[in-house]
Amino acid sequence: MKINKNKSGQIKTSIISTIRLLNRIIDHPSEFSENETIRDALKSQGALAGLTYTDIENAIQIAPLSITTLKAKVTTHSGGFDFNSYDHLRKQALDSLTLLDANLASDVDPNLSNDQPIIPSKVKLTNQIAVLESRLEKHREANFRLLQALNRAVTALENTSKTDDSRLRQKIARDEISSIAKTLLFNDHPFNKLHNPISIAPLHPES
To answer: How many CB atoms within 10 Å of residue 15?
Structure first.
């Protein structure tokens, strides 16, 4: 990764790299299970903003930022994330490590003899259930937001079908795509972005 020497470049690189890191933690939590620096950084907004971390292989280069700078610049440099959805990603990464811990803690002891009963710890099972219930609630919230987005999209389609103004149709389409994209930001990775860029062009370009 090319090192940015100017301040604005460093801010952009840090924000993009942090999102890339969070996505990687969610996808591959076992890689970070023993990384106490990363674990501590995920515990709060301020700790993550103050993280210094470099992973050249995965194009990650993070320098510390203030919360004020992060809130002001995250939407500009993240491809659409606002600070709330950015923080949602942090919490999802933390949940991934918490669930991994619970799963590892409930693994069978390799030294357990064949005639010993396998009795998972009640505390371990309780931790697993708590994490899974939290994820279930998040899925319910995401489904509710998606239902709202679909309802708005249906209304937008109805409005589009009633107008002959091509510019108004384009505006309705752009606004609705933007609205859906913002709604998706609150879903869990990797279902939090429109992966294919969408452009709106008039059916009959005006001369």
So the answer is: 24
CA dist., res. 40 & res. 48, Å (int): 8
Residues 1 and 77 in one domain: yes
User: 2 is written with which tokens?
Assistant: 């090319």
Say which residues have a Cβ less than 8 Å from residue 144's Cβ, sequence separation at least 6: none
Same domain as 73, residue 15: yes
For residue 126, give its domain range: 121-198
Count H helices, E strands: the chain? Answer: 7, 2
pTM passes above 0.85: no
Q: Exposed (0-12), middle (13-18) or buried (19+): which is 202, by Cβ within 10 Å? A: exposed
What CA–CA distance (Å, rounded) separates 171 from 160? 10
User: pLDDT 10s per residue in the chain (207 long)?
Assistant: 555 568 889 999 999 999 999 999 998 999 999 999 999 999 999 999 999 999 999 999 999 999 999 999 998 988 778 898 899 899 989 988 988 887 766 544 444 334 444 445 676 677 667 767 777 887 787 788 788 888 888 888 888 888 888 888 888 888 888 777 777 777 777 777 766 544 444 444 443
Give the Cα separation of 22 and 50 in Å (integer): 15
Secondary structure (3-state) at 89 = helix
Contacts of 33 (CB under 8 A, 6+ apart): 97, 100, 101, 104
Is 65 in the same domain as 126?
no
Gyration radius (Cα) of the chain, Å: 22
